[in-house]
Specification:
heterodimer; A: about 350 residues; alpha+beta; 60s Ribosomal Protein L30, Chain: A; seven-stranded mixed sheet; five-stranded mixed sheet; B: about 350 residues; alpha/beta; Rossmann fold; four-stranded parallel sheet; 16 helices
Chain lengths: ~350, ~350
C-alpha cells in the first residue's frame, strides 16, 4: 500500500485513512500495554482502582451552528468517550488554542455553553490551558478536552467483546449533526431546520448498563458515522455485523440532504448518539432504558452480530428492504458532495 | 410526493417477474449512461435481480470519469496561476491526473476550494475581487446551464476575476459513439433522468431512427429503473424501437427551454477528448462571444505537464461497457476507494466506485 508522505484531510475523518495513521504511526511509536488501543477510552489501573481516561480535540467550523456550538461538542465529546467505558465521568480538563483577533464575546459564549453542558452532564472542569496563536494560524478556536472517571468493579466494556447473537442498538436518529454542519458550511449551504444532536450521554449509558448489565460495548458514532463504528467493532471482535437498513432511524430531512449531496448516511458524523452491543436476552431491556432516557426517545434495535462469513475478513453488511445485501465499508477520506 | 411507492418491494418484484417473462430465451444488453443510475442499480441490487440473459451495462455516465487526464492536468495547472483560487466540485479533488491530484496540490498549499456549485464560486470571486477565481467546469447538460448562468452573471456584474475552465460535454455524441462502436453491443439505453430534464427527448431520437435502438428516460428509484427496463425489453422483443419518457414527474418531453437557451447563449460545441471513448467531434463545449473573456485557458495559458495514462487502468473499457469493473485486473486489490488508480473509482458516481461500494456479499 502506498505510504502517505504528507498529512491529508482524510487522515482526520474518522475512517480508514485515520485508522491507518493511528496504527502505522501513533501506535507504532506509543505502544503501551497498559492502554487498550481501539476503544474510545483508555482504562488503566491507578491506586487500586481502574480509571478511564479519554481526550478529544474540537476544530469544527463554523463554531456556532443550529442547536449548539463548539463548546457543547467539546464537553459532550469527551464525556461520551469516557462514558463508553462504563465509568462515571467526573472531571474534565480543557485547553484552548485561540486565534489572535477572535471576538471575546464569542469566546465567552462558547465557555458559557461548556459550563452549562458540564452541569447537565454532572461533570466539573477542573484544569485547563490557554494558548494564543497569530492571526491565520488557527481557525478561530481549537479546544481540547480530556476526561477521567472511575470504572466500577465488574464492568469490562470493549469493542472486542461482541459475540455472535448479540444485538446492535442505536440511541436515536443518525446523521443529524453531520448534515447540520454541512448545511452551514460556506460553499455548500442549503436551508434546513435540522439542528445538531450534540448531547451528553453518560446518564443514558448508566441507565442502559443498569437494565442490561452484560452490555458488551458502547461507542459514539462521531466522525466516520455508524459504518466506521460497526467496522471497528467487527474487526476488534473478529465477527460480522448485519444491519437491517429499514430499522435504522433517520430523519426525512437527513435522508433528503444525503440524497441531494450523494452522501451515505451511515458515514455521516453524529455527536449525540450511542451505539450499543448487547446480548440478545438483554436487548429489549436496553432498548427500553434508552427510550426512557433523555436523548434516547428514537432508539432502535438495528441489527445483530454474526459469525464471520469467511475466515480472513470481518464485514459489516446492510440488508435492504429489497432483500439485497451490500457491504458497509468504513469511510475512506472525506465524503465529497456529488456533482449531478 | 411520497417517494416510498417508487421503492415498494412488492411492485419491484412484480416488475422483475414481468421482465423475466419478456426476456425468456433472449440475450439483451441494456446500457445506462448516468452515474446516478449506476449508483441506484448498485444500491438496490438490481443487477443481480435481472433474469439470465439480460445484462445491465454501465456506460459513460459520470462526467468526472469521462474527463481526460489532459483536462485534469489543465485543472491542476490552474492552481499554479499566481494568486489564483481554484474552485471545484468535490469529486474532482481526488481524481488522479498524470502525476498528481487537486487534493494533493491543496495539501501542498494551493488554494483549492470545494464548492457545491458555480454560484458559490461566483461568491468567492465577489469576496476576493483582486484574485483570479477559476471554476473547474465538469458535467453534462444537468450542470452546464447553471455554470452558464454563473458566467452570464459574472459578465453582467463585471466580475472580471471569475473564470471557467470548461470541460463540459454533451451526452448525445457519447451515445452515438457507443451505438457506432463495433466492440459494444447495446440493445437499448436507459436514458439519463437529470440530463433529460434539461434536454428533453429530442437529442435521443436518432437512436431509434438511425440505429433502431430504443431508449427510455427513467428516474432513479428502483421502481423507476425497473419500469424503464421493462419498457426497453418489451420494445426489443417487439422490434419497435422508440424513445419514451418514463420519468414524467421530472422530465418534460421538450425539456427545460430556459436552460437550453442559457447553454445556447453562452457555449458553442467544440471537439473534446473523452476518457475511454477518445476524441469525439463537437461533443464538448467552450465559451463563445463576449463570454470567452472568462475562459481560463485563454486568459492564463498555464504550462501543462505532458499527459501520461496510468498503466493497467481500464477505466476506458469500463466506460464503453466492454468490461465490468470487477473484470479490470486492478479492481479491488490495487484500485479501490482508499487508493484509486482511475477516476471511475474516485467519483462517487463512477462505475467502479459503485461496483465496489455496493458489491454483493457472497
Amino acid at each position: 500500500m502506498q505510504k502517505d508522505t504528507e498529512v491529508r484531510l482524510g487522515h482526520g475523518s474518522g475512517g480508514a485513512m485515520m485508522k491507518r495513521l493511528i496504527d502505522d504511526l501513533f501506535l507504532d511509536e506509543f505502544s503501551d500495554e497498559a492502554a487498550l488501543p481501539g476503544d474510545d477510552a483508555g482504562v488503566v489501573p491507578l491506586g487500586g482502582e481502574r480509571i478511564a481516561m479519554s481526550t478529544d480535540s474540537f476544530v469544527v467550523t463554523p463554531q456556532f451552528f443550529p442547536g449548539g456550538d463548539i463548546g457543547r461538542l467539546a464537553v459532550c465529546g469527551t464525556v461520551n468517550d469516557v462514558a463508553t467505558s462504563g465509568a462515571q465521568v467526573k472531571y474534565l480538563s480543557c485547553g484552548f488554542v485561540l486565534e489572535e483577533g477572535y471576538p471575546m464575546d464569542k469566546l465567552r459564549q462558547i465557555v458559557r455553553t461548556m459550563a452549562q453542558t458540564a452541569a447537565e452532564a454532572g461533570v466539573s472542569i477542573v484544569t485547563g490551558d490557554t494558548k494564543v496563536v497569530e492571526r491565520g494560524h488557527a481557525d478561530g478556536v481549537f479546544i481540547n478536552t480530556a476526561g477521567v472517571g472511575l470504572v466500577p468493579a465488574g464492568v469490562n466494556l470493549s469493542g472486542r467483546n461482541c459475540r455472535p447473537g448479540d444485538k446492535v442498538l442505536v440511541s436515536g436518529t443518525l446523521g443529524d449533526h453531520g448534515i447540520c454542519i454541512i448545511s452551514q458550511r460556506e460553499g455548500l449551504a442549503f436551508s434546513t431546520t435540522l439542528t445538531t444532536d450534540a448531547a451528553p450521554l453518560n446518564h443514558l449509558i448508566a441507565a442502559v448498563l443498569e437494565a442490561a448489565p452484560h452490555t458488551r460495548a458502547f461507542r459514539d458514532p462521531t466522525r466516520g458515522g455508524l459504518a466506521s463504528t460497526l467496522n471497528e467493532f467487527a474487526e476488534a471482535s473478529g465477527v460480522d455485523i448485519v444491519v437491517a437498513e429499514d430499522d435504522v432511524p433517520v430523519r426525512d430531512e437527513v435522508r433528503g440532504a444525503c440524497e441531494m449531496l450523494g452522501y451515505d448516511v451511515f458515514q455521516v458524523a453524529n455527536e449525540g448518539k450511542m451505539v450499543a452491543v448487547v446480548p440478545a436476552d438483554e436487548a429489549d431491556a436496553a432498548l427500553a432504558a434508552m427510550r426512557a432516557s433523555r436523548y434516547g426517545e428514537n432508539a432502535a434495535i438495528i441489527g445483530e452480530v454474526c459469525e464471520p462469513a469467511c475466515e480472513s475478513g470481518h464485514t459489516v453488511r446492510l440488508k435492504t428492504a429489497f432483500g439485497s445485501t451490500r457491504i458497509l465499508d468504513m469511510l475512506v477520506g472525506e465524503q465529497l458532495p456529488r456533482i449531478c | 410526493m411520497d417517494l416510498k411507492q417508487f421503492r415498494d418491494p412488492k411492485l419491484a418484484h412484480e416488475l422483475i417477474e414481468l421482465i423475466g417473462k419478456i426476456c425468456k430465451g433472449r440475450t439483451i444488453n441494456l446500457m445506462e449512461v448516468c452515474g446516478t443510475h449506476t449508483v441506484s442499480i448498485g444500491r438496490y441490487g438490481l443487477r443481480s435481480a435481472m433474469p439470465e440473459g439480460l445484462k445491465l451495462l454501465s456506460g459513460p455516465g459520470c462526467p468526472v470519469c469521462v474527463t481526460s487526464n489532459h483536462d485534469i492536468d489543465c485543472a491542476i495547472a490552474m492552481t499554479r496561476v499566481p494568486d489564483a483560487i481554484v474552485a471545484t466540485f468535490g469529486d474532482m479533488i481526488r481524481v488522479p491526473g498524470s502525476t498528481t491530484t487537486l487534493g494533493a496540490e491543496k495539501a501542498q498549499g494551493a488554494d483549492v476550494r470545494v464548492v457545491y456549485g458555480p454560484l458559490d464560486a461566483l461568491d468567492i470571486a465577489r469576496k476576493s475581487p483582486t484574485r483570479p477565481v477559476i471554476f473547474i467546469g465538469v458535467g453534462f447538460e444537468t450542470t452546464t446551464p447553471v455554470v452558464g448562468s454563473a458566467v452570464q452573471m459574472a459578465c453582467e456584474e463585471g466580475l472580471s476575476n471569475f473564470y471557467l475552465y470548461c470541460a463540459h460535454k454533451s451526452t448525445a455524441p457519447a451515445l452515438a459513439a457507443i451505438a457506432n462502436d463495433p466492440d459494444t453491443r447495446v440493445d437499448g439505453f436507459i436514458l439519463p433522468g437529470h440530463v433529460s430534464t434539461v434536454t428533453g427527448l429530442a437529442p435521443y431520437e436518432f437512436l431509434a431512427r438511425d440505429f433502431k435502438t430504443p431508449g427510455v428516460v427513467t428516474g432513479f428509484e428502483p421502481v423507476d429503473i425497473l419500469s424503464g427496463v421493462a419498457r426497453l425489453v418489451a420494445m426489443v422483443a417487439e422490434g419497435t424501437p422508440r424513445i419514451e419518457n418514463a420519468y414524467g414527474r421530472g422530465v418534460d418531453n421538450c425539456g427545460n427551454l430556459a436552460a437550453q437557451k442559457v447553454i445556447e447563449d453562452v457555449f458553442e460545441p467544440c471537439d473534446a477528448v473523452w476518457r475511454g471513448l477518445g476524441p469525439i467531434p463537437m461533443s464538448g463545449l467552450r465559451l463563445k462571444g463576449a463570454y470567452a473573456a472568462h475562459d481560463a485557458m485563454r486568459a492564463f495559458s498555464p504550462e501543462v505537464e505532458p499527459t501520461r495514462e496510468t498503466r493497467g487502468c481500464r477505466c476506458g473499457d469500463v466506460l464503453r461497457g466492454i468490461i465490468t469493473p470487477d473484470q479490470c485486473p486492478l479492481f479491488g486489490r490495487v484500485c479501490n476507494p482508499e487508493q484509486p488508480t482511475g477516476p471511475c473509482m474516485v467519483s462517487s458516481e463512477g462505475s467502479c466506485a459503485a461496483y465496489y461500494r455496493y458489491r454483493e456479499h457472497n
